[in-house]
Every structure is written in structure tokens, then in C-alpha cells.
Design goal:
By secondary structure, this protein is of the alpha/beta class. Helix content is about 35%, strand content about 15%. It contains 10 helices and 10 strands. An 8-stranded parallel β-barrel has the order 3-4-5-6-7-8-9-10, surrounded by 4 helices. Strand 8, helix 6 and strand 9 form a beta-alpha-beta unit. GO terms for molecular function: androsterone dehydrogenase [NAD(P)+] activity; chlordecone reductase activity; oxidoreductase activity, acting on NAD(P)H, quinone or similar compound as acceptor; retinal dehydrogenase (NAD+) activity. This is Aldo-keto reductase family 1 member C4.
């Protein structure tokens, strides 16, 4: 990881900025906020923008990116854009359709990175979570290696420069890596990662395979009751984190972000507050000591905010394994 140039080299030769801007917003937040926040992020210096079919906001994110290109702030090649294939498109014949839908909404001709969003297939559907007449989510059985092969074809077609996975455990990653006839290794695995869930074993495994770990929910998480137990602890109020923030005269959020960068983890920061977006770019302006890093390692409690409990019965549910 090259912190001086703020980027990391991926195993396919492309480069990914080490600080990314996450664009997920709860449905009750007005979509125009997404346009505004993404523009602020680009103006503040973010060059890595992370979205997904699931977020249902790629139209707005694309609009923000294109407007910053149009006003001369950035060129298309300065922006590293990530999208993700959602579970209802895992059948090999549907993968490209999902990516092409994203590209149409974005009005871009390629994404820089496309991920398999979660390792759990759902029945093909117009809706995000297809349910049967009893309201039960309809699972699908799809060989993830076949989904991966379809994603490799998207890379060959120039629709995605790099391809990777998200929310995969070690066993599922290994299955892709050991796939007969593997053409491209995943460049990254994007997972929940923060001081309460530092993913150290998964990080070591990914490093051994030249796969970048990308951290989402790096600041804890938004209190979105659809995904998160509202009684879960608030990471940024942790006394240890707050004491380190005071020591470095920084915010607890900046300490949490810096922690990831110094571990060799690419980190996504999500906010729709202009001041906090500008503040988060200051992560490159200070350094944590080895002692600080040890103290933060000590906060790990294997606590997961995003458990996806409603999919826990899925045969490919990833969070039952240790890592």
C-alpha cells in the first residue's frame, strides 16, 4: 500500500485509491442528497466512489460524477468507481445484465471495479428481496464459480476494469481461488471491518493471496433499522477511541479510518455532512504509533453490525464460519 500516493496496486495491475466514499443512504433520505454528498466528496479529494445496484442510487451518483467531470474538477480516469452485482442476478446469464443496467444508470461506459455483493443467490426478480406468497425470501442455488466466470467475461468485454467479491468468508474466497480454469483472481474482498471487528485472520489470508481487504462500516454504521440492531454499541463513542482522538487532536472517525490504512486495508467512509466529508480526507495528515495500533487491536470483540439475519438460513450464509 502506497500511502504517499494514496493508492494500492491490485493483483491485475490496476490501482485503487486507499480512501473511498461510500454512497449507501437509507431510503428515507432524499435521493438528491446523494448527488450533493458525492459532489462534496469529489471536491474534498475523494477519488474512489463506492456504490451498488442494491443502493438504488446509481443514477444520482453517476450524475454527480459526470457533473464534476463536466466542470473540469476531475477526468473520468481520475475516478475509481465500484459497483456490485446483486443476488437476484447471480445466474451466469444475468450477471452482465445487472452490470449493464448500472452502466446505463450511471451513463458511464465502464466501472473500475465490479463485485459480487454477497455470496448468497436469490431468485431472479425485479425486486431486491423476492418473497413467496407467505412473505418468505426466495433463495436460489447458483454455483458462485459460474457467477464468477460470468464476471470474468464482463472484465474481458471492458465493462469492468477489475473484479472482486464482497462479504465472502475465507472458505468461499478459497473456492473461487481454487476454481479449475480460473482466469482472474478477485482483486479484493469488501467486508465489514472496524476496531470492534478487525477481521485480522481474514486480512492475513487475503494478504497471503495478494487480495486487498476493503473495509465498509469502518466507522461503525448508520443506525438503519432495516440492517442494524439499534441497541448495538456506537463505535465512535468508544472511550479508548475517543482518548486516542484527543491525543492526536483528531476526530474518533479519523482515528478509526487511519487504523485501517496502517493495517494495509482500503477504507470506505460514508457521510452526507459536508464538513465531515472534508474532515475525513485529513486521514493522510497524521500517523498512529505502534502502541496506538496495539491499543486499537485490543478493542476487537468480533462484533458485527451488519448480520443479514434475514438471510441466515441461506446455505451460503457467510457469517457462521469463524472468518
Amino acid at each position: 500500500m502506497d500511502l504517499e500516493h494514496r493508492r494500492v496496486r491490485l493483483n491485475d495491475g490496476h490501482f485503487m485509491p486507499v480512501l473511498g466514499f461510500g454512497t449507501y443512504m437509507p431510503p428515507e433520505v432524499d435521493k438528491s442528497k446523494v448527488v450533493e454528498a458525492t459532489k462534496w466528496a469529489i471536491e474534498a479529494g475523494f477519488r474512489h466512489i463506492d456504490s451498488a445496484h442494491l443502493y438504488e442510487n446509481e443514477e444520482q451518483v453517476g450524475l454527480a460524477i459526470r457533473s464534476k467531470i463536466a466542470d473540469g474538477s476531475v477526468r473520468r480516469e481520475d475516478i475509481f468507481y465500484t459497483s456490485k452485482i446483486w443476488s437476484t442476478f447471480f445466474r451466469p446469464e444475468l450477471v452482465r445484465e445487472c452490470l449493464e443496467t448500472s452502466l446505463r444508470k450511471l451513463q458511464l461506459d465502464h466501472v473500475d471495479l465490479c463485485l459480487i455483493h454477497v455470496p448468497m443467490a436469490l431468485k431472479p426478480s425485479e425486486t431486491i428481496l423476492p418473497t413467496d406468497e407467505n412473505g418468505k425470501i426466495m433463495f436460489d442455488r447458483v454455483d458462485l464459480c459460474a457467477t464468477w466466470e460470468a464476471l470474468e467475461k464482463c472484465k474481458d468485454a471492458g465493462l469492468a476494469k477489475s473484479i472482486g467479491v464482497s462479504n465472502f468468508n475465507r472458505r468461499q474466497l478459497d473456492m473461487i481461488l481454487k476454481k479449475p480454469g480460473l482466469k482472474y483472481k478477485p482483486v479484493c474482498n469488501q467486508v465489514e471491518c472496524h476496531p470492534y471487528l478487525n477481521q485480522s485472520k481474514l486480512l492475513d489470508f487475503c494478504k497471503s493471496q495478494d487480495i486487498v481487504l476493503v473495509a465498509y462500516s469502518a466507522l461503525g454504521t448508520q443506525r438503519d433499522k432495516r440492517w442494524v440492531d439499534l441497541n448495538s454499541p456506537v463505535l465512535l463513542e468508544d472511550p479508548v477511541l475517543c482518548a486516542l482522538a484527543k491525543k492526536h487532536k483528531r476526530t474518533p472517525a479519523l482515528v478509526a479510518l487511519r487504523y485501517q490504512l496502517q493495517r494495509g486495508v482500503v477504507v470506505l467512509a460514508k457521510s452526507y455532512n459536508a464538513q465531515r466529508i472534508r474532515e475525513n480526507v485529513q486521514v493522510f495528515e497524521f500517523q498512529l504509533t505502534p502502541e496506538d495500533m496495539k491499543v486499537l487491536d485490543g478493542l476487537n470483540r468480533n462484533f458485527r453490525y451488519i448480520t443479514l439475519d434475514f438471510l441466515a438460513d441461506h446455505p451460503d450464509y457467510p457469517f457462521k464460519d469463524e472468518y
